[in-house]
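ugh ok fine here u go
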Amino acid sequence: MENVDDEFYERADAHIHLANDQITEETPRGKVSASFMYGMSRFCCFVTAMNCEDKEDLVKSKEDSIEYFLEQFKLVLEENYDDYVDNY
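structure:
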């Protein structure tokens, strides 16, 4: 991945460890994954909102923001998927 700061992977690992800690017999990986994605989507909306001047600006930025986050998620998902295939 390009243009990441020194703590990038440490932050990502912290989120992964938190998610892993939530996996139990009663709460399988799929449920944890769904919660993780929901939380990430909420945080993406928060980040976008904090970069907007007002509600109107937030409304106007919706499609571009969604497109950006989907594109970024797809890139890192493909990168991680390929890594898992290479190291399976």
